[in-house]
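Please produce the structure of this protein holding xanthosine-5'-monophosphate.
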Amino acid sequence: TWTPDAFVEKTVAELKEKIGSDDKVILGLSGGVDSTVAAVLLHKAIGTHLHCIFVNNGLLRKNEFEDVLEQYKGMGLNVKGVDASARFLDALAGESDPEKKRKIIGRVFIEVFDDEAHLVEDAKWLAQGTIYPDVIESVSATGGPSATIKSHHNVGGLPDFMKLKVVEPLKMLFKDEVRRVGASLDIHPERLGRHPFPGPGLAIRILGDITREKVAILQEVDHIFIQGLRDWGLYDQVWQAGAMLLPVHSVGVMGDERTYEKCVALRAVESTDGMTADWVNLPYEFLQKTSNDIINKVPGVNRVVYDISSKPPATIEWE
Ligand code: XMP
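Below is the modeled complex.
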């Protein structure tokens, strides 16, 4: 029978054997479960010969880059945080088309990752947190660097880092098995229980073009919503949640003043694999408090709506 402890023991031994004691390995961390578990396994096998790269694309949740980088360092990982926010946001300026936004983000990610990979001497391997469902589905919906790399890897010439040999220690595992392996490696439950978050991040939750101001507004709204779910003990009952910044203004009133400001939509879904999803019946009291907090604390937003659409036909993300 399969047990996480036996998997760890066997995989660490295999990784040591395969990689040897001289080669260096590069791995892109996303903050998500799969890349984190892959990194900790490899770190157990080869220590500081594993070079992790964590890229800030400027489209992460509020404080996510700093917080997660600290956590990774606390786990003893050899990790370099690369703040490439300006590069991504400049490349996205003026673009409103959802698929073009995804392509730009994928391209810039590869450029940044390739630049960083060149700085690691003796790098011979690229490690990825690919899991079994990614292998069987050609289109990955798991998010993170591995998904970005895969969906772009036959466009034009290969970047240099892609000429590395590939190592994918989680390739035969399902998500729940990855979580169990993570627990057996003592990875913090909060990291293992994290909701999925798309690789293009907030870019596909800001409908229309992306500006720094819109990112900042959405980060505040998202933070109030997600922290609220945690405070109310609802976070683990939800498969994925987030806020969308809509490209409309609506009329409101504040004191004696008429306002004409932005509208956000909150979305929380139950799902097992993201292929189908139902909206979650969050308590009215929670929605009421969250809506008040958002409107009172986030300048520029005067209206909050809750998305009550299921997938299909509505997708989880709005773009
Ligand atoms: P949809 O919106 O298609 O989302 O119902 C299903 C799941 O996939 C995630 N998602 C993405 N993940 N790159 C990613 O890495 C993407 O471009 C992307 N689009 C959607 C979404 O967050 C949900 O978990």
